Structures are given as C-alpha cells and as structure tokens.
Amino acid sequence: MSFDKIVSFLIFTVVLSCFISESSADTGKAMWYKPVVPTACFGKVNQGQWVAAISEDLWKLGKYKCGQILTISCAGGQYPCKAGSKSIEVKIVDHWVAPDVKFIAISKQAFSSIADPLAGQIPIQFY
User: Fold this and answer.
1) N or C: which end of the chain has fewer CB within 10 A?
2) Which positions of the chain have pLDDT values less than 50?
C-alpha cells in the first residue's frame, strides 16, 4: 500500500470517528457545584477545577467511570448558553443523587465557560 493511501485512510478514519462521537452524544442537564474533597474517585487528592459529578444512575450504568474525561456542550444555542461557546472537557471525580438520570454537576468554572451561572441548570450534550 502506498504512503498516500495510508495517509488518506488515516484522515478518513479520524474524520469518521469525529462524526461517530458527536452522533452518539447523550443529552441531559447540568448544574454547577463547588467541588469538594474527598471524592468517591480520588479520595483526598484534589483534581482541580475542571471536574464533574455524574448522577448515581449514570454511575450505576457503568458507561461513565472515575477519571473519564467528559466532553460537554450547552445545547440550544440561546440563553443561558453563551454565544459562540465551545465544548468543554471535565474529569469525572464523583457521583451524586441527582433529580434526573442524565444530570451532571460540573464545577462553576467549567459551567461559566459555556453558560450563565445564574441560570442554575442548562440543557447539555455530552460524551
């Protein structure tokens, strides 16, 4: 196989994987919280400010795990989402008893980068 064909195949694979990730995104809600230590995943080791706690239901399903990086975007494209906001990445550090199955608490710093924190909760897409 020629070098050009290998490069073309790799580019195609990368582009295709981007579409697969986006199309398999879950929808839900997010709110902000002040991260606390200790956490269920990392005990007393602080994981910084770009963190998340997933709902107990998501935790039990096993699709999302400790230390996994979630990509989250504010869905809807209007207030309270910030205009032009991009997706953010947060690390799963904990779980909590949430009011809904697909409810994620993200640090205020992370939340504020995609939405107005005064909104309380926002619709999201995540994977």
Assistant:
1) N
2) 7, 10, 13-21
